[in-house]
Amino acid sequence: MVMSKVAAMIGGDAIIGAAQRQHARRPQRWLKVAKIYNEFEEECATSNEKLKQIADAMTMEMHAGLASEDGSKLKMLVSYVENLPTGDEEGVYYALDLGGTNFRVLRVQLAGKSGIKSQEFVEVPIPPQLMVGTKQELFDYIATELAKFVGDESDKFHVRPGRQRELGFTFSFPVMQLSIASGTLMRWTKGFSIDDMVGQDVVSELTQAMKRKGIDMHVSALVNDTVGTLARGRYDNNDVAIAVIMGTGTNAAYVEQAQGIPKWHGPPPKSGEMVINMEWGNFSSSHLPLTGYDTALDIESLNPGQQMYEKMISGMYLGEILRRVLLRMADGAALFGDTIPPKLKTPFVLRTPEMSAMHHDTSKDLRVVRHKLKDILEICNTSLKTRKLIVELCNVIATRGARLTAAGILGILKKTGRDIAKNGETPKTVIAMDGGLYEHYTEYRKHLENTLHELVGDELAECIKLVHSNDGSGIGAALLTASHSRYLAIDGS
């Protein structure tokens, strides 16, 4: 057990003989450290019973968000994706992935049951001045690069006479989706601030820019990256019904029955299903094991009171939680000596990849931890005991995040009836996972998978599988373009 490790670590110094009285301050310091650690560990505790309460709360919020637009902290956005890829798609499709300071243009050639025949892409940086300029300047720049990409392609990719190239547009900013291929920008994030774009249809702006640059291309799908991850997973495996992104941020999407969406007033989808973009980062519940560190982080954040679930489980925040605990130990227990290391006071100086590297340090003297403390926080000459403590703190934070993620997934399984047998048979459920946190933070991933197994039990766990589904924002967008192609009816697909 983690607490016993720390207790044993500290207890070894706590026995003070007469000859050691001059060193009495050091054991007192470690007793204070232990107190802070134990309180933090206790506040982060996630018993299976608590996790099941969180899962039930997630299910309730999902119902509420599907019932009305403002019924829940979960937006439960209708994606207008009613046809996920089947694996039979053929042809050449394009994707534009805009979600940060770079954008990508992709070309994907699909060969039916043979899968993806070829894929090519270019990545282009966006000049900083265009991130705060005008909508025409930004989209003309993007369209110019798209024209170069198409202009350089070989004859084998040329479209049939009378047809347009088709493109899926992944736009990873808050959008109010209006149809499969239209949506208005609600607000900018990630350093963008183009005022004349807010409230405008992003597909319309891209289409106009492509016309100005002479590109004969039709936008067939406006895609959220999580929905794209679901499409990417479904293309490879028909049992994929849920997608979860665990990266800098976090989100989930899943396949919902049309009759399970009371707020949907459009024509019933022919498939009888609709993909829902949950925006689950904004989930909140009294059952979440919030600590004082989480509360302070939230208050000082750019969006206080929002995205509480995301702030406890995603890559943007795990390293920052660790920094805050270490700062408390430095301030209240002199963990690093009589003065607080100045760098430790800098918010977000300790990133989750560095936390992951320290957590995975298997060297006897924990040299990776030592180097990270020195290079990032300018803390030198740390004891092995201090480094061991830091590894244990990483474990507490990562374990809590992973277990809370598993509870969220259980909530989706419950909402979709995939947590119980039907007619004596348990449905197979494959969950498409993507994001750097899931892909690279091995301990986090293990805790997530093991916790989900614990929560659903051995029998159901046999029917649930988590798979890494790479590049939903790129290939996934191209696949959704194929499954929503305007030429499907003509081709008899």
Gross morphology is globular
Strand order of the largest sheet: 1-11-10-9-12-13
List segments where confidence is low: pLDDT < 50 over at least 5 consecutive residues. Answer: 12-22
How far the N terminus sits from the C terminus, by CA atoms, comes to 57 Å
Order of helices and strands: HHHEEEEHEEEHEHEEEHHHHHHEHHEHH
Largest sheet: 6 strands, mixed
Tally of separate helices: 16
What Rg, in angstroms, do the CA atoms define?
A: 25 Å
Mean pLDDT, rounded to whole units?
A: 91
Helix content: 40-55%
Number of strands: 13
- Structural class assignment: alpha/beta
In what range is the share of β-strand residues? 15-25%
Task: Please characterize this protein's 3D structure.
By secondary structure, the chain is α/β, with parallel strands linked by helices. The chain contains 16 helices and 13 strands. β2 and β3 form a beta hairpin. It starts with a helix and ends with a helix.
